[in-house]
Structure formats: structure tokens, C-alpha cells
Design a protein that fits this description.
Elements lengths: L1 E3 L4 E2 H9 L5 H8 L9 H15 L3 E2 L5 E2 L8
Helix pairs in contact: 1-2, 1-3
Amino acid sequence: MYVCVCRAITEKQIESAVAGGARRLRDLRVELGVTEECGRCARCAKQCLHQALDKQHPPQLLSHGIRTFPLIQEAA
């Protein structure tokens, strides 16, 4: 699916960027150019980013029903 029509960026490209180390929308902007034109894709790009991160580091459910998320260390 196309996420950013202005730059022809797909969900797969965002997943690849996450696999390559992208952790924030800013990382996607630098690597792929997401949100640099009109900005309408920001919400969808962020959602795709979070979904890709969840695939890599799925949240865990504690016995009392609270979800925990693993800490992701950012590159220096």
C-alpha cells in the first residue's frame, strides 16, 4: 500500500527502514522523505512505523492484563 503518494513510499519500504534501524518518524523522513512534501501521510506513516516496530518487538501481556513494551535502544 502506498503511504506517501508525493514520494511514492510504500508500507514495505517503511518496514524495510525499520528493519534497518528506523525508530522514529524523523528517521523515516531522513531515510525515505516521508512527510517532506504535503505532510498528509504523517499519521499513516507513524501508524505503519509502530506496526513494524511491534512486529520486531511485540509487546508482552502481564498476568494482570497490562501490556509492556520492550525498551528500544536508539543508535548513538
